Amino acid sequence: MFKRILNPVWAFDMEWAPDPRGGRLLHNLPDSASDEEVMATMWAKNGATPENPEPFLKPALCRIVSIAAVTRQSRKEGGPPQLHLISLPKDPADPAQNDERHVVGHFLKALGERRPMLVGYNSIAADLRALVQRGIILGLSAPEFCKRPDKPWEGADYFAKMSDWNVDLKDAITPGWGGGSPSLNEMATLSGIPGKMEVDGQQVPRMWLDKRLPEIVAYNEFDAVTTYLLFLRVSYFGGHFTDAQYQAEQEEVRRLLEREADAGRVHLRRYLAEWDRLKARVA
């Protein structure tokens, strides 16, 4: 369990799909091969079966297509925290923003500048590993993100084990006592928090091939909000919030979702409706 809540907090999630460019390089496929053909070869080379035709691929073999995060900034003067929902690409219709170098590079640069408490679910084994590996493959430079203090108490360190700057909620709730780790969907749904709704991660590659990036970004935002709400619940369990504070923190999330839905992210209304439905069932 993490020892404290730092400022700011970024609860994030990422979506990725097999990288056709990498597949052509690894398997010596011609440039004329379609992205779908290349991805099919990548799955076949990684153990595809009739029962599992699209097996999990190593993060290095996949391109990151979307990153979303709920950011929490405590106010120095007191009062409720400032919450924002950020996502990359900001405009899925803009080809320049869809470029993986833009998505990964922009996020790593922001992490290096802001140095937030980074919170994810299975993030140490998956998301953070993908960020580092893809950043290297893309030829990016992220010195501020990679910077490590001489002593643990002297600043953010995203590479130290058991660091409060890099919190993996899956590890926090499964503290080394055997297997049986729940998925984000299982942990969230059982807690009255929306888990998987219309989409799950296994559908993302096909959605990307079909150029349904706006839907991927919307799904990614759902998972980022879910990760943040689970972070609040784990923080409450760990004694970082009183009953009243925990309730107030959840209300701030509701206000964030309502504000963003009114501003054009209408898919967040579905999230609010599902949240209300689940809360009523677990009450």
Mean pLDDT: 94
Count every beta strand, where a strand is a DSSP E run of 2 or more residues: 5
Order of helices and strands: EHHEEHHEHHEHHHHHH
Q: Number of helical segments?
A: 12
Spatially, the strands of the biggest sheet line up as 3-2-1-4-5
What do these coordinates show?
This protein is of the alpha/beta class. It has a single domain (9-282), classed as Ribonuclease H-like superfamily/Ribonuclease H (Nucleotidyltransferase, domain 5). Helix content is 47%, strand content 13%. It contains twelve helices and five strands. The protein has helices at 20-26, 35-45, 95-98, 100-114, 123-137, 143-146, 169-173, 184-190, 204-209, 213-237, 243-262, 268-282, and strands spanning 9-18, 62-73, 82-88, 117-120, 166-168. It has a five-stranded mixed sheet, with helices on both faces. A hairpin with an 8-residue loop joins strand 2 and strand 3 (82-88). Helix 1 packs across helix 2 (35-45) and helix 11 packs antiparallel against helix 12 (268-282).
